[in-house]
Amino acid sequence: MLFLTTVAPWLLLAFLGQQVSLSSGARNKHRGADKTVTAAPDKAPRSGDKSAANGRGKFSINNKMQCTWEAKAVGDAVKLSVKCEDREARIKGGVTDIKCEYNGKPQSCAGYKSNNKGFWKQVTRAFKKLQGKVCSDESKLVRAGICKRAPRDAHFKLDMMSSVNLAQSGEPETHLPPPPQPRATAAAPVKPTACTARVNHLKTAEENCSGSWASVCNFFLTMLQSEDC
Prior knowledge:
By secondary structure, this protein is of the alpha+beta class. 40% of the residues lie in helices and 22% in strands.
């Protein structure tokens, strides 16, 4: 009996300690499981950033045609819509409007994400360098300077199916009628003078005086004519 009363308390304490240890281990294991379940998953990268595709700008072609462009996200790509207008050509004739679209994937360029505003400014400069080849030469890419080492699809390429050119003939020029030419007035008939009349009389006298009298008639008529003239 003495042995039982001495050992029993120690056995009870050992039993209680084992239960506490098992309970503590179970709680720790449960907490670890909760942490594994509630861990936030990694965010998958987005294929296209629509907030970054908000560029727009202006440029001119040969200082005559005024152009504008605007960027828009389309799926995992970015589309540039280009519109040009020449108001002077509407009057004088020629190409009045140009429209086209360029497509690219600038997301593969690090500069597009780190310096978005600078990227779009360089796109405007690239359009200015193209000049007459805008909307007409698909081999010419629109390249931003900060994306020189980026893949080829990071640059914008012309979609020839979207290219449209509109032309118009000039308005006909209005010609003023020539001023009326002054009419030539008929000259007034010249009245015979006294000398002319004498000449006529002299001719008449020569016709009427014949033979030896002709010289006498001429002499007298000549004297009369010289006195009047």
